[in-house]
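Sanity check. The docking grid for zinc ion depends on where the pocket ends up, so I'm generating a full predicted complex first rather than guessing from homology. Inputs follow.
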Amino acid sequence: MPGWCVSKPRFTMDEIRRLGEVIERADAILMGAGAGLSASAGFDYTGVRFQKYFSDFAEKYGFRDMYSGGFYPYETLEEHWAYWSRYIYINRYRNAPKPVYEKLYELVKEKDYFVLTTNVDHCFQKAGFDKSRLFYTQGDYGLFQCSVPCHQETYDNETVIRKMVEAQGYEIAENGELYLPEGRRPERKVPSEWIPYCPRCGKPMSMNLRADDTFVEDTGWRKAAGRYADFRRRHQGRILLLEIAVGYNTPGVIKYPFWQMTYENPMAVYACVNLGEAAAPGEIADRSICIDGDIGETLKFL
Ligand SMILES: [Zn+2]
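Predicted complex below; grid placement will be based on this.
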């Protein structure tokens, strides 16, 4: 799309009211969501939450947030999985602290909607979104794959992840909360027998997350991609493209296609809710709603 100009982002009741009206009128809603949505729901990867579960790793390696520890090349797989099992347990198998996803679901559940997301934490499904209306393009914390990969399949990891965190000294409360018994320090390693290996080639398993070209697109992924393409084909008319908290890390997945679709369909409306980065190109500015705000806050007024 040639020419770049930014529409004026605002966090005003007028803009929010406009968004409410467009949602009301839209025949269909295509939602695109990024990491900021989970952050708004309380899934913080820094600060108190990071310190609570990773202070031993922070002490040894100087990490300040969960992402850095995830990419660190640990000397042993025992330590690698100690880190990753805590990370996966708290971000995939626990519910987000605030009901932001649930409120979003209330807003769209009666509509013909589809969700495209780079988030890998399963929050949409946990909030009630229909699995057949979701496309997780970048993977899922709940799945392992062969690290090679020698085959295009993924494996549920919940059971082994639970065993790994418990083997480090953690206990899992009835409500799912992970805690350490009084005075106990966690082990920074898991027993070797819990390290996952590929059932076909015997190489170590890895997370099913798109970090490089080893990412496995399994049957579920390909079906979801097909349903997404189908949704786009079916809705060429009054559609709302609702982009939520999508940054500029991977704009080619959601942001740029949303702009392009709005540009090509004169009946489409583009809405962008993003704290600090709400913008739309000049070509579609007259059909854009830009709300410079947190999605959790915005939803309170919708
Ligand atoms: Zn393999």
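Relevant for the grid: Confidence is low (pLDDT under 50) at residues 1-5.
Also worth noting: The CA atoms of residues 28 and 234 lie 10 Å apart.
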